[in-house]
Amino acid sequence: MKLLKAVILRVLAIIALFLLSIGIFILLSIIQETVFVPKDYIIWIFKRPYSGLVIVYEIYLICLFFYVFYKDLRDTWRNGRLFKKYRKSVLTAFITFNIVLLYTITSAVAVVTKDKVINYSFFSPQGREYSYNDIVKIETGVYSKGRPSLFKQSKGDFFYIIELNDGTKIDLTQVGGVKNDEDERFVIEKLDRQLVNMDIPKESSMKNFEYTKKNLAKIYTDKIRNILENTN
Question: Could you give the angle at which helices 184-197 and 218-229 cross, rounded to 10 degrees?
Fold first, then answer.
């Protein structure tokens, strides 16, 4: 009976960890959208590689799981000489690290509105604004290699990178949110037509387009094709 109870508790804990992981992403998105995204946005971006730092909080949850369910580990941590001796320093460093980490993650946002791009960063929390005329180049295509990761792209992922006049590059497919929950590929297609009509230089490749068909429905791959072929 005790064994069954322990197994059930661990299964429930794993489910809770999974739900908390999803909750962390949702909470961060709410904070970012509330603080950084204006009402007239059409799409906003959660920039890589900073978005991948969310994995740190996943690690915290895993550590919490072991701390709660493994008494020996808990006692070792509590009674460790190193922790006892440097407890205040460790806690101070931990709190400071998490404040910096949370700020870094939440400020990694870029926003596209109907007439401008706003890029936020660690050193520019107020955001730097660019008009569409400040976009000097567009690069778009499909990645031919890569593994699923919070930090990098996967094989078959579509990318649409705009380069601004100060060298800043923003991939609009790293979506944080889209106005009215419209699919980002539909939004990017409309934006692409506008930017191309402004004669902004565009580098586009159909080379790896077939990879997109593996995981996406035709309605979405058709939009990607339209974007890649729109070079007039």
Answer: 10
**Would you state the structure tokens that stand for residue 167, as one six-digit string?**
């060298």
Give which of 112, 137, 115, 114 is closest to 47, Cα–Cα: 112
Per-residue pLDDT tens over the stretch 126-183 = 999 999 999 999 999 998 775 554 556 677 789 999 999 999 999 999 998 898 888 9
Tokens of 141: 């295509």
Q: Which residues of 163-201 are buried (b: 16+ CB within 10 A; e: fewer)?
A: bbeeeeebbbbbbbbbbeeeebbebbbebbeebbeeebe
φ, ψ for residue 37, nearest 5 deg: -100, 120
Rounded to two decimals, what is the model's pTM? 0.79
Collapsing DSSP to helix, strand or coil, 150 comes out as coil
Peptide bond into 49 cis (omega under 30): yes
Q: Quick one: how far is CA 67 from the chain centroid? A: 28
